[in-house]
Amino acid sequence: MAAGAASVASFNGLFSIPALAEETKRRGKKCILLWLCGAPSQFDTWDPKPGTATGGPFGAIATNLPGIQISSLMPRCATLMDKLAVIRSMSTKPNEHFQGIDALTRGDQPRPPFTRPILGSVVAQQLGQLDSPVPQFVLLDPCPEGNEFKAFKAGNWAGWLGAEYGPVRAGGDYGIPNIQQLDTISDGDHADREALRKFFSKKYENDYRSTAAASHNAAFDRVQGLMSCAPLFDLDSLPEADRERYGRGAFAQHALQARHLIENGSTFVMVANGMPWDNHVYQHEMHQMLVPELDNVMFQLVNDLDQRGMLDDTLVIAMGEFGRTPWLNDARGRDHYPTAWSLAMAGAGIRGGVVHGATDALGVEVIEGKVDNRNLFATIFQTLGIDPHEEYELPGLPTFHRVEDAAEPIREVLA
Amino acid sequence: MRLCSFILVLLGCVPRGIAGDPTTQINSQLSAAWQERKVQPAERCDDRTFVRRVYLDLAGRIPTREESRTFLADPRDDRRQTLVERLLGSEDHAQHFADLFDVILMGRADEGTYQRRARHGWRAFLETAFRENRPWDEVARQILIARPSDKEHDGAVWFLYEREDNYQAIAEAVAPAFFGIRIECAQCHDHMMADEIEQAHYWGLVAFFNRGKNEDTPNGPRVAESAVGGFSEFANLEGSSTPNFLTFLDAGTVAEERPAKEVKRSDEDRLYVSAEVPGDPREPIFSRRQKFVTQVLDGHPLLARAMVNRVWAILMARGIVHPHDEIDSMHPPSHPDLLDWLSDDFAASGFDVRRLVRSIVLSDAYQLSARRPTQATPPDSFAWYLERPLTAEQLARSIQLVLRGSFQNDASVVEDLRQQILEVLPDTVEVPIGDALFFSNHANLDAFIRASDGDDQLIAGVLACETADERAERLIETAFGRSPTESETSAITAYLDQRSERPEEAVAQIVWSLITSAEFRFNH
After folding, report:
1. B509 to chain A nearest CA, in Å?
2. Most buried residue among B157, B250, B387, B393 by CB atoms closer than 10 A?
């Protein structure tokens, strides 16, 4: 612990130059995406159907919004609803994880051979400070596995924006390996050697117009900056009381770390935890473990940001890639269901205390305020101050818009 | 052939019986597709590029300066063919392909597991398969039956043995390894996108292997097989249950007496025969593994097709079906007739892997420049040589060659790199920052560079050069196999001048910057 505290102090020393400190704390908008991969059940979170045959065992509780109930597994969020916007009318197309993750993290379905950048890459590029040593887009994921998410993680995240906008990947108790400089080399030589490497390496990148080399060089470009802020990734350096309050699970600890990164200059932090929500089997038992953690994390995170005066600038989104079936399968699981599902957001100009849209009595269809991934992304961009419909202008790229078809943001949840 | 039905229906007619040389086929079919798609291919690569490329792809390492010079000085028109032939017969080739197929068939593992794979003959089994160019169908049979006939084939048990009684893991490994398909998502339901992959196939494939049991015998590890048990039912998402019949893909169902649900059949001696090899576990008279090999695997068109597509992906950086191990109706091939032709030819040639490898590397497409003609040229046109990252082993051998002029396959740098760089056939290239941190700060790599201080090694050799130009020439030629540009010579000279009081360290840092640059990191 002592070593951790000392290294935080030395890290803070990085910002002792007033101008840099000011620049780092510049109030740009930021975003934390709690990525509930595998897809949680809307019935056991934001859209309960108490008293129905297929609504599940958990029932619903009242919230601090009159007339609005959420799952009884979320008592803390029930006291927070005035700060949240819940969307109960998501209706999307992809029915399999890989395609769902693609559409809900990039905003649209693929148009090969062009790869649309992932949300974090767009936000980092639009709002981030790329000359900052602090990584602008961080993916915290302690779990290298995760079925289709594993495959997705191995893919191209930054798409046509280029590798420099891809995430720095971290997570887990093990921190980031090889982040400390060796004693055998001086600071000066470490930097000069890298400059020489870059010189050799850029020649190849340019000669061959190589995107792989660009990705390679972008990774090295980040080394020095990342080394300088190594303590930011040290979970042990975070106050014990905070760690206790968020909970000891990896997802909770990383949500806390996300807050810490956002406080210290990151622009977009995506918190994932493998693909735990895909409960085709024993979904009640699984959700009984997963939802209370989410409930607490959301509550602590939104409150912390609020108390620190950061909620006005920081968007928090909690969602997966689709919802779960209104009916149970033979293994008491719920299967994939993109037709009608829910998510929640808060902060950065999202209007609190709003529940947008509705599903029918059993949650089979959206009956009010139907929206899809494009509407969602238009909303996210709009509230972050990024033009949702801007045309991407890159050489060799056909016409693409940040959000296609001029899809409207969800006005009801925008302040 | 009884088994072609679904593939043939999916892909249209197969041009059977066309005689000819596979390289000619590749050339004519790819160029016809370029014309049809109005794609302008890249130009043919020069000899310097070719020699580095083909050493990496076939021998798993860069050429030494001497090997490179020998090739470049060869005046014969067929020098590329000659080199390819020599490399295919080299021990390095057997080692490189054993490296690749170890990862493809078994996955990366911790160093303890690597040692066990070596100790129990798996590594040797793979090396022998490629050294002797054993027919791929025979290799597949030996792996899946897992009853070695002699000591030399001991390692054949390891594919099953390492996965112990995790029968689902076995099924999920068998499907991509020998059929080129992924079945994981058929565990809970019929494949949503590729509907020829049914849930019954998933559980059927599991059932073919679920009577296996690891046994440590005086002959070494063996996978015994029970004559009873392994009956269960699986539930689909609608809730109805189905028995796990012995069935896979289009191969029909293997008939098997199925006891009534409540009856537990006793495990009697009369259900077995003793093994041919004394000391090996007895064998069931009705062996599910045996049935799988004789009734599903033998003659299955995907056995040839999966290997052709995989070897193509190894040498061309993406499969004709991409991803290379998802040969299903959701992933149509970019060149269907070519894949058909090569698969037929591969089967007809007796599953001759070396013939397949040779025919691809001698094709025009393999010998194109790595410069992408235009940003819009699609990668599945194979209109340029798609660059690919060196695998951990290729990189580790090449780093040793640069620094020391020789290499060992069990050097510590091999172990460190294979724990860091896991993929051998990545679908896309996105370099993780963890790799850059590894190269920048890993203590063992740093120590390895520092310890390369022998008189006959690169650092000393550079310092012994008389002029700055010679030093730059030596460094760039050793690492990149080409001459330095003027600006590279100046940069190297300036770097050395600034550190003239500690020259060894300065050269070591320059070598670091070369072996961590993109030109070294990728095959191109």
Report:
1. 6
2. B157
Assess contact for B51 and B74: CB atoms under 8 A: no
pLDDT of residue B10: 41
pTM of the model: 0.81
- Number of CB pairs, chain A paired with chain B, less than 8 A apart: 171
Q: State the nearest Cα–Cα gap between B77 and chain A, in angstroms.
A: 27
Rg (CA), chain A: 22
- Please choose, from the candidates B114, B111, B201, the residue with its C-alpha nearest in 3D space to the C-alpha of residue B158: B114
Q: What is the pLDDT at residue A173?
A: 59
pLDDT-derived band at A25 (thresholds 50, 70, 90) equals very low
Are the CB atoms for B342 and B365 separated by under 8 Å?
A: no
**Residue contact A192–B495, C-beta within 8 A:** yes
Report the distance separating Cα B471 and Cα B280, nearest Å: 61
- How many angstroms separate the CA atoms of B381 and B365, rounded? 10
**pLDDT tens-digit readout, B343-373:** 999 999 999 999 999 999 999 999 999 999 9
Provide the edge-to-edge strand list for the sheet that holds A168-170.
A168-170, A137-140, A268-271, A30-35, A314-319, A341-346, A84-90, A354-356
pLDDT tens-digit series, residues A185-196: 999 999 999 999
* Residue in chain A lying closest to B370 (CA): A208
pLDDT value of position B25: 96
Compute the 3-state secondary structure of chain A and give helix, strand, coil in percent, each to the nearest 5.
Answer: 40, 15, 45
Chain A positions touching B235 (Cβ under 8 A) are 329-331
The partner residue sitting opposite B239, judged by closest CB among A199, A281, A329, is A329
Q: How many domains does chain A have?
A: 1
Evaluate whether residue A10 is within a structural domain: no
Contact B431 A211 (CB under 8 A): no
Shortest CB distance from B517 goes to which of A181, A192, A197? A197
Distance from the Cα of B354 to chain A's closest Cα (Å) equals 29
**Predicted pLDDT of residue A27:** 56
Phi and psi dihedrals of B245, rounded to 5? Answer: -65, 155
Residue A80 included in any domain: yes
Residue A299 forms part of a structural domain? yes
- In A339-358, the residues whose Cβ lies within 8 Å of chain B are none
Cα A302–chain centre separation: 14
Nearest to A82 by CA among A383, A353, A399, A330: A353
A176, A227 Cβ separation under 8 angstroms: no
CA distances from A323 to A53, A330, A342, A358 (A): 18, 18, 7, 14
The CATH number covering residue A319 comes to: 3.40.720.10
**Beta-strand relationship, A341-346 and A69-71:** unpaired
Contact with chain B for residue A210, Cβ under 8 A: yes
Give B115-129 pLDDT, tens digit per residue: 999 999 999 999 999
Using the beta-carbon criterion (under 8 Å), do A199 and B514 form an inter-chain contact?
Answer: no
Q: Is the pLDDT of residue A13 over 60?
A: no
- Centroid of chain to Cα B95: 12
Check residue B250 and give its pLDDT.
87
Provide the residue range defining the domain that includes A269.
27-175+234-413
A positions 223-252 inside 8 Å of B (CB): 223, 226-227
Give contacts of A 267-286 with B, CB under 8 A.
280-281
Q: Is residue A199 part of a domain?
A: no
Identify which of A96, A192, A211 has the shortest CB distance to residue B192: A96
Residue A316 confidence (pLDDT) above 70: yes
Q: How far is B491 from chain A (nearest CA, A)?
A: 8
Q: What is the mean pLDDT of each run of 10 residues along chain B (524 residues)?
A: 39 46 96 96 97 98 96 97 98 98 95 95 98 98 95 94 95 97 83 82 95 95 95 80 90 88 85 94 96 96 98 98 93 97 97 98 98 90 97 98 96 95 87 92 95 95 96 97 96 96 96 98 97
